[in-house]
């Protein structure tokens, strides 16, 4: 069953999510903590708080960073999820073991390359924690409702957004195999999918990722939580 925590603002969501990451890193018994990151508007706020906490709250060199999805652009492009993380994490990026997707490659080639990378770290079970958001349509990572990517059974696939652009994405089995999901949900438009996940009715991609999982923590802002 997913656990819901509410906060007044997106900044409050980001602060709490960053603190949850720090606690998980500090509890982790292994040398590296495998953290999968996502794009969106809230993660940069999380990354900036992690940057402030690094060296005081946790050791950033213990992080191994992965991504749950990426646009098919080079890291220098403003739409790159990894590029955004590099910008906002600062010295945390430099200290961590970074395993970004190769958005500059052809989508299928990039997906195959990342699948090989994940295989080295445990395949579908590579992630200690996945930081995920969700779209107003209930999509998670780049697994959109009604698309072939949503039903893919390997570890990495090519997803197609409603806009028609292709993206590299981990698959549902990878999200469901992560040891924990840390969810950020900001805005009223996300409430229906959060409500669905909390009720245990796995219809949307987001609810399917959460379904039956013992360790799902959803951080929602006031706009989202008021509409639940």
From TrEMBL:
Gene3D superfamilies in the cross-refs: 3.40.50.1360
Pathway in which the depicted protein is active: Carbohydrate degradation; pentose phosphate pathway; D-ribulose 5-phosphate from D-glucose 6-phosphate (oxidative stage): step 2/3
The enzyme's E.C. designation: 3.1.1.31
Keyword Transferase listed: no
Keywords, ordered alphabetically: Hydrolase
Bilayer-crossing regions: none
Record-annotated Glucosamine/galactosamine-6-phosphate isomerase domain positions: 10-208
Flavoprotein recorded as keyword: no
One biological process term in Gene Ontology: pentose-phosphate shunt
One Pfam family of this chain: Glucosamine_iso
InterPro entries for this protein: 6-phosphogluconolactonase_DevB, 6PGL, Glc/Gal-6P_isomerase, NagB/RpiA_transferase-like
The organism's place on the tree of life at top rank: Bacteria
GO molecular function: 6-phosphogluconolactonase activity
Catalytic activities: 6-phospho-D-glucono-1,5-lactone + H2O = 6-phospho-D-gluconate + H(+)
Annotated function: Hydrolysis of 6-phosphogluconolactone to 6-phosphogluconate.
NCBIfam families, alphabetized: pgl
UniProt similarity note: Belongs to the glucosamine/galactosamine-6-phosphate isomerase family. 6-phosphogluconolactonase subfamily.
Name of the protein described by the UniProt record: 6-phosphogluconolactonase
Upper lineage: Bacteria, Pseudomonadati, Pseudomonadota, Alphaproteobacteria, Maricaulales
Gene it is expressed from: pgl
